[in-house]
Amino acid sequence: MIKSVLRWGIFLCFFTSAAAQPLIQQRSDIAGNWVIEGTALNLTGKRSPETSKWTFGKDGVLSMTSLYMFSETLTGGGREMTITDTYDVTEGKIVTGRSGTFEVIEKTPAAMTLKSLSSSLHYFLKKK
């Protein structure tokens, strides 16, 4: 009886520690160019299209580039605008200097889903 309880306890400890591993652990896990394909309030909700790309540098610099659509009336075409921020990976989350903290919901080598902890907005990104 004691042996079976002990085995069960060891199994549960192993299972919970394996399940608790964060999807990302360091900057190199997300470094590179990512295109935001859309945003939504939840994982299954309707996605609003985006025209942004984020570049996560291995040095902790995050460059966020968006197409500024309102410049079309002045210049005849959209103009890109880039904002630079800092970031780090802490406890499996992306913590930026100004843009907030993002929980990594899903991560594959080609795609990543983030949830903003300040706005609860989900970001759907593809690796470029």
Tell me the name of the CATH class: Mainly Beta
Distance between the termini: 55 Å
Average residue-wise pLDDT? 86
- Which residues sit in consecutive blocks of at least 5 with pLDDT less than 50? none
Q: How large is the count of helical segments?
A: 2
Strand content: over 45%
The counted number of beta strands is 8
Using only C-alpha atoms, the radius of gyration works out to 19 Å
Short characterization:
The protein is an alpha+beta fold and 128 residues long. Helix content is 17%, strand content 48%.
Explain what the structure shows.
The chain has 128 residues and is of the alpha+beta class. It has one domain (23-127): Beta Barrel (Lipocalin). It has two helices and eight strands. Strands 1-2-3-4-5-6-7-8 form an eight-stranded antiparallel β-barrel. Strand 1 (32-40) and strand 2 form a beta hairpin.
Based on the model shown, name its key terms.
alpha+beta, single chain, eight-stranded antiparallel barrel, 48% strand, 128 residues, Lipocalin, globular
Question: What are the SSEs and their pairings?
Answer:
Elements: H1 2-19, E1 32-40, E2 48-56, E3 61-68, H2 72-75, E4 79-90, E5 93-96, E6 101-107, E7 111-116, E8 122-127
Antiparallel strand pairs: 1-2, 1-8, 2-3, 3-4, 4-5, 5-6, 6-7, 7-8
